[in-house]
Amino acid sequence: MSSHRAAIDVRSGQASHVAAAGVLVILGASGDLTKRLLMPALYNLACDGLLPDDFAVVGMARGDGTTETFRSQQRQEIARFHTRRSFDEQRWQWLESRLHYTAGEFGDPEAYSQLRELVAKVAAGTAAADNTLLYLAISPDFFAVVNQQLAAAGFTRLPGRKRIIVEKPFGKDLASAHALNQSLLSLWSEDEIYRIDHYLGKETVQNLIAFRMANAMFAPLWNADHIDHIQITATETVGVETRGQYYDKTGVVRDMLQNHLLQMMAYVCMEPPESLDPDVVRDAKARLLEAVRLPGPDDVERDCVRGQYGQGVKADGTPAVGYREEPNVDPHSNTPTFAAIKLHLDNDRWAGMPVYLRSGKSLWKRGTEIVVQFKGQAESNLLIFHIQPYQGVEIRMQAKRPGPAFQLQRAGMRFDYADTFEASRGTGYEVLLYTALNGDPTLFSRTDFVEASWRVMQPVLDAWSETPAGDFPNYESGTWGPRAATTLLEQDGRHWHECLSREVLCRSAFFANAPTVLLNTLVLAFRPLAVEAGATVVERGDSTCDLYIVCRGALEAVGAADERLGIVREGECFGEMALLLNQPRSATVRAVAHCDLLVLDAEDFQRIIADFPQAEADLRQIAASRGA
Ligand code: BG6
Predict the structure, then answer these.
(1) Ligand 1 centre from 69 Cα, in Å?
(2) Which of 76, 72, 117, 130 has its CA nearest to residue 99?
(3) pTM value?
(4) pLDDT tens-digit profile of 582-595?
(5) Which residues on neighbouring strands pair with residue 591, listed in sequence order?
(6) Which residue's CA is minimally distant from atom 10 of ligand 1?
(7) Which CATH number does 201-490 carry?
C-alpha cells in the first residue's frame, strides 16, 4: 500500500483523516463547473470534517468580481446545488470565509501577478503555502495561454507541492492530445499534471478495483476461458440540451467512449495490480489499452455502429426534437450521438473475447452498467456492475423453483449501495479534490493512458469522418438507438442485456409509488422475449396475465374491429390491468416492427407480491379505480 493512500482507511472505504493543507486555485471560477460541482464537493468535504483549517480557495475569472461578490454568488449557488439532505449553515460559513477572488483576463500577465500575490497572501505563515492546486475549469481553447501565463508568473516554480488539474476534453484526437501533453510537459512534470475523468470519482467505478482486488473467488474466472463477453453501456435520456456548440464538434466517441467507457473497461479488464500504488494501478490500465486491437477501416464498417437521434418522445411522454433541430447544431450535422463498438483485447487473458461498448443520448433509459456474461448453457450467469443511477452489484443465476417438479428459474443476488451504506450522495468530485490535495494521483490519468485511449478511438473517428453516415437521423428520441446496434450482437449470437431499472418501472403510473424493495425484486424477475414484426403478443379476450415492457421496437394496441387504439413505444409497459385484476385482455397487442420485450410472468408476479400485502392492496386498488 502506497503512502499516498495512507489517509484512506481501505477497510471501511471512508476517508478517515483531514486532507493535506493547501490552496485550491480555480481558473474560470465564475463558470458552471465551480458552482455545480466543485463548490458542492468542497462543501461536502467540509461537512464531513475532511478539509483542514489551513485551506483556501482562490478563484480567478474574467469580469470584475471581488472576493465579496464571489462569496455572495457562491452562497446563492450552493443553496441550489448542494447535495445533502439539509444545509449546514455553520459549515458553509467555515468554507465561505476561505474563499478569495481576483478578476483578470486569461491573457493578461498582470492578472497572474495579482493571482500569485493573493495566493501567497492567503497561505502566508500556514502549511497551505507548500501545496498549491491549479484547477483549469476553463474551455480547452484557453489551456495553452493560461499555462504559459501561469509559468511566466512563476507558478511552475512555487515552493512545495504543486499540481495542475486539467478537465476533459483532453484534445480532440490523438494528434491534438499529444500536442497538449507536450505543451503541458514542457512546463510541468508528469507527476504534477492531474487529468480528470469524473467517472473515476464515482464510488461504483472505484469499487471496480475493490471488487477485482478484494474478492478472490472471482479471480480464477476472470479470463476468456470463463467469460463469454463483456458489455459496457452508458446511456442518457437527455439530448445535447444547451451544449450544441460543443457537442457538434465532439460527438459521442470523443464525449463518452474515449474517456469514460475506456476508463471503466480498463478497470474491469486490466491485469490485477500488485498493489494500490498509484503508478502500479496506472501502469496496469495503460497496458490494457495498449492491448486493444486497433480496428482497420473494414473492422470499423463491420464492428462499429453509429447513430444520431431524430424527433421522438421523451421518457416523460413529451415530444423531443431531433439532434439537427437542437440549438447551435448544424441542420445537416453528421455528428454521432450514439455509438456501439466491438473491441478485441490481444493479450493472454482476453484473447478471443469481445468487449462491446455502447453509449448514446436521447434514449429511453438513463443508466450505466457493466455486464459480464459468463460462458454456459442457454441461460448464462451474469455479473452486473450497476454504476448509476441505481448503484449496486448483481449476480444472476438459476435456482430450482420450489415444488415437486425440477424446474429452473432465474434468480439473483444483489448488493445495493443504498441498503448497505449511509453515506450522503456526493458529486463524485469530493474524492478527486481530496486525493489531489493529498498528492495522490491514482484517480488521474497519465500521458500514456490518455494517448492510448485516443489511439484506440482514432480509427473509428477517421473512418466515420471520411464516410458520412448517409442515414442520419437513424433512431427516434426515446428509443433504444439504431437497429444496427442490436444486429451487431445478434450476428455474434448474443444480445444486449438491457438492465431494467426501477426508474423505468416507475414510469408506469401503477408502479410509481410502489415500495423500493418490491420494485427491486420485480425488476429482477423480468425475462427477455423477442418477437417479429406482425406477431401478436397478446390477444383480446385472452386470459394470460403477463406484464410487458418494450425494450426495442413498437407495438400497436387494436380493438375488436381491428381499429388502432394506440401505440406502445420503447420504455413503456403494457398489461398492468390484466396482471393486477386478473382480467381477460381488453385489446390485442401486435408488434409493428421487430420488438425486444421484457416479460414478467404472472405467476412470478403473484409469488413476489404475496410478500408485500400492503403494496398488493394498493396496486389492485389503483387498477380497480382505473378500470372502473
Ligand atoms: C460528460 C459528457 O463528460 O459526461 C456529457 O460531456 C455527459 O455529455 C456526461 O452527459 C455524463 O456524465 P454522468 O456522470 O451524468 O454519467
Answers:
(1) 30
(2) 72
(3) 0.91
(4) 888 989 999 998 88
(5) 555
(6) 236
(7) 3.30.360.10
